[in-house]
Write a structure and sequence with these properties.
Length: 495
């Protein structure tokens, strides 16, 4: 993480508080000029052949492979993730970039639309083009500083755009390393530029002359960013907070489901937008609560630099204190602590994996928007009650359904108001490079990854062509035959 001291961003290891390095912030007043330089580079880049864009993207991807261990070390130290999670982020990021390299040309290729029945109306066919937007302004996040930043940058430049992006002030060193890798890959000077800093630098970027904004982070900050973009008439892509439910059906195998839910709740110290935060048990919840609490207590919490650690720290002392306030407020609203519920002593910002039990939605509402190692369990009588409870949240990022009968589980899954729903799995499927990812309701809009993701960074243009001098009976002066011919068309094709 990073905290402010004078003007510099000071990166610290959240496991022990040790300083990792310092990064000078970008002057807010210079952000506009950086955007304009990106625009100049983009004008040339937009005319560059796909083969050349692909070549540079491939060079960038090869560098990732060669530096995988270095990337994992950087994420472990600055974010506090166990090494397996950090290496997983590197692998998922590379997979998403490789998807763009392999499939970008197809996703961006012109599409021909036939006239079909409309040919009888003398309406010609059409060609759909996907044109670059211009300069994309991105505000990144810290919890997945590579996976939620690098693939989006790859898709934006693949589509012919320039990018000016701001890494989170909580992860300035990983941001610096990512920009260095982009500079070394061979992209034109100024095409992809980084600005570092706190909120004022983000405000300057959002207020600059960008052509689309992308924000990844919490709902509160996201709403401020989106308000500014909307006021400037700038479209946006937003991936915001989640409060993900899991519905456990009566036939779910307990042992394997408990293992999976434990991981889904506490991966990344629960600082994962698609982490499981609410579990609805259809039927008797007591045995599930007991085993889930035992599973949570068995997790090895500590410095990820040590071997055999399952869960690291929260990103900062402030984040840990805020998380603890969420837990206390949930208890005040009627939840019971089954296990955990308190910070861990010693250096670093650790917190015990926490399992809460609740019997009503009141306690649940106090936990909404929490970011940390906690999961709340609630017993429900049937699937109807479970679906209603899951959909009652203002968030709609992801959800999961658990059970042996896959048809029954899928039937429940189809009723959930979320961007991604999984059956007998959680979190991991977000790494699918082809699958669009994003939320509904207060969890954001737009999608990243795959064809849907790359097309977030283009504008659609339709071209329709007619031969010069071609026959067009709809021109002035109108013929009395036009209404008769149109009525005949209706009778023929729309009876």
């Amino acid at each position: 993480m990073a905290i402010a001291l004078a003007d510099a961003l000071i990166a610290r290891n959240p496991s022990n508080g040790a300083e990792l390095g310092r990064v000078n912030p970008t002057a807010s007043e210079s952000v506009g000029a950086i955007v304009e330089r990106a625009r100049e580079a983009q004008r040339i880049w937009s005319t560059t052949a796909w083969s050349e864009r692909r070549k540079i993207l491939k060079q960038w991807a090869r560098a990732f492979v060669g530096q995988a261990d270095t990337w994992a070390d950087a994420i472990c130290q600055e974010i506090g993730k166990p090494r397996g999670e950090a290496m997983g982020e590197v692998v998922m990021s590379l997979g998403a970039i490789r998807w763009t390299i392999l499939h970008g040309a197809r996703a961006l290729a012109d599409e021909k639309l036939r006239a079909g029945r409309q040919a009888f109306l003398l309406i010609p066919g059409a060609r759909v083009r996907y044109r670059p937007l211009g300069v994309i302004g991105m505000i990144g996040t810290w919890n997945y500083p590579l996976f939620l930043n690098a693939p989006a940058i790859a898709q934006a430049v693949a589509a012919g755009n320039g990018v000016v992006w701001k890494p989170s002030e909580m992860a300035p060193l990983v941001g610096l390393k990512l920009q260095e890798s982009l500079d070394e890959a061979g992209f034109p000077a100024g095409l992809v530029a980084m600005v570092q800093g706190r909120a004022e630098v983000g405000r300057a970027l959002v207020g600059a002359r960008i052509d689309k904004g992308m924000f990844t982070g919490g709902s509160e900050n996201g709403h401020r960013v989106l308000t500014t973009l909307a006021a400037n008439g700038v479209p946006a892509l937003a991936e915001l907070s989640g409060f993900d439910p899991a519905i456990v059906l009566p036939d779910a195998p307990r042992a394997s489901t408990i293992r999976a839910l434990t991981w889904g709740a506490f991966v990344g110290c629960g600082q994962t937008c698609v982490a499981v935060k609410r579990i609805y048990i259809v039927g008797d919840a007591k045995p599930w609560l007991k085993e889930l609490a035992e599973s949570a207590r068995s997790l090895r919490v500590g410095d990820p630099a040590a071997p055999n650690v399952d869960m690291g720290p929260l990103i900062s002392e402030e984040a840990r204190d805020r998380f603890d306030r969420f837990v206390r407020a949930t208890v005040d609203h009627g939840a019971e602590i089954v296990t955990g519920g308190e910070p861990r002593p010693g250096p670093g910002w650790f917190y015990a994996p926490t399992v809460l039990s609740a019997s009503s939605a009141e306690a649940e509402s106090a936990l909404a928007g929490v970011f940390g190692p906690v999961v709340l369990v609630r017993q429900v009588h049937n699937e109807e009650e479970a679906v209603a409870a899951a959909n009652s949240s203002r968030f709609g990022l992801a959800a999961s359904v658990w059970g042996r009968d896959l048809d029954a589980a899928r039937a429940v899954a189809r009723r959930l108001d979320v961007g991604t729903v999984t059956v007998n799995d959680a979190v991991t499927p977000i790494g699918h490079a082809s699958a669009p990812f994003g939320g509904t309701k207060a969890s954001g809009f737009g999608r990243i990854h795959g064809i849907h993701g790359i097309r977030e960074f283009v504008q659609t243009q339709v071209e329709q062509t007619r031969h010069a001098g071609g026959f067009r009976p709809q021109l002035f002066p109108y013929s009395q035959r036009i209404p008769t011919l149109l009525k005949a068309y209706l009778q023929l094709f729309h009876r």
